[in-house]
Every structure is written in C-alpha cells, then in structure tokens.
Task: structure prediction
Amino acid sequence: MPTPIAFVSRSDSESETIWKTALRAAMPEETILSFSELSEEQKQAVELAIVANPDPADIAALPGLKWIHSLWAGVERLVLELGQKAPPIVRLKDPELSRVMAEAVLAWTYYLQRDMPAYRNNQQNAIWKDLDYRHPQDVTVGLLGLGALGAVAAKRLLDAGFNVAGWSRSPKSIANVETLTGETGLNSLLAKSDILVCLVPLTDDTRGLINADRIGVMKDGAEIINFGRGPVIVTDDLTAALDSGKLSHAVLDVFDQEPLPQSSALWRNPKVTVLPHISAPTSRESSARIVAANIGKWRTTGVLPETVDMARGY
Result:
C-alpha cells in the first residue's frame, strides 16, 4: 500500500476540496490527504507532496519527502520560500496551459494591432474617426521567452500572419522565427519589436529585465504585453515611458503586488489595460491528469519527471 500523498496549500478549504476532488478522480488508486488531515505518523512517512502555494513550515514538517509536484507552471515563489535544501520540485507542464496562453497572446496582440485602445478612447470622447489599418505582415511581435509557452505562442502568431522574433536565455530554433539570445540579441529584439510580449519566468536574471535603459532601445510608439511576472518590468520606468509617449500602450496581466491595489495609478492610466492575472488560467482536470501521469510513472519506474533547476529558478 503506497504511502499517502500530501496536498499542501495555503488556499481556503473550499479550493482545497475542489483540487483534491480533481486529483482523486485522476488517480483513484492513490490516497490524497490535506496536510491538516495527516496524522503525525503519516507526516513522517509521506514521500510525495502536491502543492499549490504551500506554507514552508508544512513542507518542513514532512521530513520524508522525496519530491514535490507543483500545480503551477511558475515556481519562483516556491523556489524562493523553500530554498536550496528543498526536495526535488517538479513544475506543471501542461499542453493545455500552453494552448490557452498562446490564445491570449494572439487575442491581445490583435487588440493592439487593431488599435482597440485608441478606439475605446475615441468612444469615451465621442470621436468618430477611423484609423489606418496595420496589416499583420507589417507588425513584428517580439517574444521575450521561447520556452513551452513562447514556442506555442510563436506558431499562433505566425499562423495569423505576424512577423515573429524571439529571445531566450539559451539558444532555440523555431521554424520561421528569428531566434536571439544574449545581451546583443535582447537589444536586437527590443529594437525591432512593434509589440513586445513578456513570457519569461521571474528569476534573479529576469527581475527588472525591462527597465528604462532597455525601453530606450525600443521603437518609439511600441507596445508591451506582460503575461510573465510583474517584476520582470520596472513599473516606474514603464509608466514614465508611457507618459512620455515613448511607448503607446501596455497590456498588463501580472503585477508586483496582486491583487493590484485600488490605489495604484495603473488602474486609471488610459495607456494601460489592466487584467486580473487571467491570461492562462489553470485547468484543474487537465492539470490533475498531468500530475497523475507523472506520479504513476514514478510509482512504476522510480524515475522522477524533469525537476526544477534551483539555481536558475525554473
């Protein structure tokens, strides 16, 4: 009889119940218990935890953990809170998440390419005026990040007729996409992008990656979509660039603090579209199937899925 799997989260009990229901349906042969449901004996015996924003103290109370499976694709908070001594961490890699993110990238790229912010402003001011149409083939979309999310987004953008370039920390090759790397490559991407889409995870290397100096390299009137993490862009530098006209609009789905405080000036900036972190919502059923497959393989073979590089943070 395998040991129970601990479900560790700082979510409310209702959210925990919903997640456990999905996970139990995907792997009925497993016993999945919330941390609060574990006996002291079970806490000592547990080898695996499925986590969603767990309390580090709860993880520390499970000394026998062999590995941790996160329910999120982004693990920067988990890495930061658990530290280098944490058991191996597996992050969620769900093709459905990539599809949904690519859908959002295309949708909000269209939003900017078709000048929706300007038309919204014209409506508010009762201005009847048509704007020049920009054909997708005349718009270069730069993807900052060419991992699982960026690669699928690139294909959707190509299929829609956009010019696509991308930057990543390590060299990548994607058909019909100009792929760049390094500092020189980053500056090249910034200089050619009409719309810059941020998809990189938050690490020590990407925190503040888009700052005043790098915005200065961008085209006058360029636009930004941030679907990665808020601190990748220095908010004050972005706001200054929008106010000066250096950048024309920003679509922001992620922020330094979430929920975005009501006092934030971003809410009221006409050059900013605020979204409540909805670009790629997690599908519980799809995620549960991915987690179940990974756990089933481990139970059978003892082989862990690919784990997070704690030094890189993803």
In short: The chain has a mean pLDDT of 96. Residues 166 and 217 are 16 Å apart (CA to CA). The longest strand covers residues 247-252.
